[in-house]
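Appendix B. One record, verbatim.
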Amino acid sequence: MENADFENYYKGQNIIPDPEEFKEFMEALRRTLPVTFRITGSRSHCEELRDSMIRNHFSKFNSQEEISNKPQEIKWYPNGLGWQIPTSRTELRKSPETAAFHKFLVSETEIGNIYRQEAVSMIPPLLLNVEPHHYVIDMCAAPGSKTSQIIEALHSKDTGKVGSMPTGLVIANDADYNRSYMLVYQLKRLQSPSLIVTNHEAQFFPNIYVKNADKTFNVPVQFDRVLCDVPCSGDGTLRKNKMIWRSWSPRPGNGLHPLQKQIFIRGCQLLRVGGRIVYSTCSFNPVEDEAVVSAVLNECKGAIKLVDVSKELPGLIRRPGMTSWKCAGEGNVLYSSYDEVPEAEKSKFEETMFPPKNISELNIDRCLRIFPHLQDTGGFFVAVFEKVAPFGSLDLFEKRKTEKAQSKDVEMNIAKQDEEEINNVVESDSKRRKLDNTFQAHKELRIPEPSQNKNVKVFSIEQPFVFLPKDDPTIQNIKEYYGLSSQFPQEQWVVRSEGEKFRTVYFISDSVKSILNSEDSHRILVVNSGVKMFFRNEGDGTVKCKYRIVNEGLSTISPYLSDKRVISVTFNDLKVLLEEDYPHLLGFCDETKKALEELDQGSCLFRFIPSESDNNNDECLIRSKLELPVWKARTSVNLLMKKAEKRSLAWRLLGKELDEKKTRKSENEKLSSTEITSEQVSEQTTEQSSEQTLESQQE
C-alpha cells in the first residue's frame, strides 16, 4: 500500500497543509475500511427493524469481547439508522450471541432490509433534502445505494394509510445497459410505484414534455432535486479497493474532467428554479472536484449558487473546499495555471481544470471534503447548490407565463433550443456522433415495433407498457374479489404484454404515468417501472379470481382492501405458517381454522395485530401490524413468500433461523398423525409443485 506518485501529488496539491495530519491521512488509507450499513425501507419499517435489532441482539452482548464487537451508531446519520461494525465477520462469529447477530445481518441484507453501504456514500442523498412531492433524478444511479436513500426519503411520510402515497417521483438513470438492470434488482425491494429506471448517457438525458393541468399545452418536466454522483477516478475508495495503490495516476482525473462538467451542466439545465442539485465524487482530486464546481458556476453565470450546509448533518466532520490547486502533466509535473503548460502538452488540458481568476467570489469553501482519518471512513467530495435563476431552454416556460406568448410558437422555439442545448454541452463533433449512434443502436436493437393498440406506449427497452382501462374485465374481477376501494387509483394499471392473458399486473403512480403516457415517451429509454401487484395463478379452474396478491405490492394496496379476503391470526398461527410447509387447516387455532374453512379457495391475507399479551410474550418479537400473502387451498395454506423473505421474517418474528429439516419433519408428522385422505395428500403435492413452478416463473 505504497504509491510515491499518489503521495507526492497530494502533498503538492496541499490538500492537508499540516505535515503531521497528512501522515495520519496516509496511515488511515492503509487501514481496512470498517463495515457500515443502514436500515432501509419506509420510516415506520426502518424504526421497527432498528428497535428489534437493539432489543433482540445488542441487549444480549454481555461479555467484554461481545461489547467491543457491538456495532456503533453513525452519529450524523438521521434517526439512528446508520451503523458501523468495529470488527470483522470472523470475530462476529466467535460467540453465540454475536454469531446470531451476524446471521440476522446476512438474512436482512439478502432481502434488502439492511443495505451495506460506505458511510460517506450516504451523505449526498441526505443533503438533497428530498420530500414526498419532489420530482428527483439520479443521473448516474448504478449500483443504486444512493437512489434507494432517495426513494426512502420520497416515501418518508407514507404511513400505509389511504392517501399517503407520495406525489413525486424518482428517475434512476445510468449510461450502462447492464448496470441499469442492476439498478432494477437493487431497487425493486423498495416496492415504489414512483420509480422509473432509464438507460441514457447522463449528459444527453432528453427533455420531456407532459400536458399541463388543463391539458391545453405541453410543459417541460423539471426536477426539484438532481443528484450528479459522477464517474470519477475513485481514489477516495483506496481503503476498500486496494488495487488502486498499484495503478494510481493523475491522468484519469484529467481525462474525466470534461465528462464530469458536461453531466453537471446537464443536471443544472434539468433542475427547476428554486431546486437543489448535489455534485459528488469519491475522489480527492481537485481537478475532478473544485475545478468542475468552479467551471460550472462560471458557465451558469449566477443561475446556481453554492449552499452553506455547515449546519446540516451535525456530527459529520468535514473540511472546506480548496481555492488553490494544480494540474499534473507529463512526468507528473504540476502546473499552477494553463499558461504554465508547455505548448506541446496544451491539447491535453482545458483551462477550466485550473483555478479561475474569480475563485475568491465563488464561495468554494462551502464544498465538503471528507477525509478517512477524521471519522474512520472513505474519502468523498460533496457540493450542494440551489438554482436561483433561469438557465437553459426549459426555464423559458417561466418567461412565457409572464409574457403570455403563444404557446405553439414558444414550444417550437424551445424544441429547437433543446437540441442546441444538449449539443452545446458536448464539446466535440465526435461526441455528437456518439450520441447519434447510441440512439440509433437503441432504436434498432431494443425498441419494439409500434403497436396498433392506442393504450400501448412503446418506449421500453424490453417490452411495451400496456395501460389497462379501469373497466378492463381483469381489473373488475380483481376489484370485486378483493373488495378494492374506489379510492384506489383506477387508471394506473399496466401490463407488459398485449392480449387478453397477461401474467403480471403492475401499478404505477400518477406522476410516473404522466411521463410514460406523454407524447415524448418515445424519447425515454425505460428499463423498468411499476410495482408487481398481482400474478396469475394457472391452478384450479374453480377459483373465482386467478390473480393472487404479490408480496412486493402488498404495502401499496393493503390500505385499500376490504376484509373480504383477510384472515385475522394469532402469534401461534404465524409460527405454524413459518415453521411448516403447506400447513393443514387443522394446525391453526379454532377461530382461524373456522375463518379459513368459510373462505373459498384462492389468494388471501393473514393479518396479525399484536395484543397486549403478545407484547408481554418474550417469544413474540414483533410489535406492529403484519400482513402476509397466503394461498388458501381446500385443506391447507401456503405462505406466498420467497425463501429469503421467510428467513428474514423468522428472524424478526421469532429471533431464530428456520430449520428446514425440522420443517419438513413436522409436516410429515402432521400428515401421519391426522386422518387425511389420499385425495388431500395428492392435492397438497400438486399445490407444492404448482407454487414452486410459479415461484420459478416469477424469479
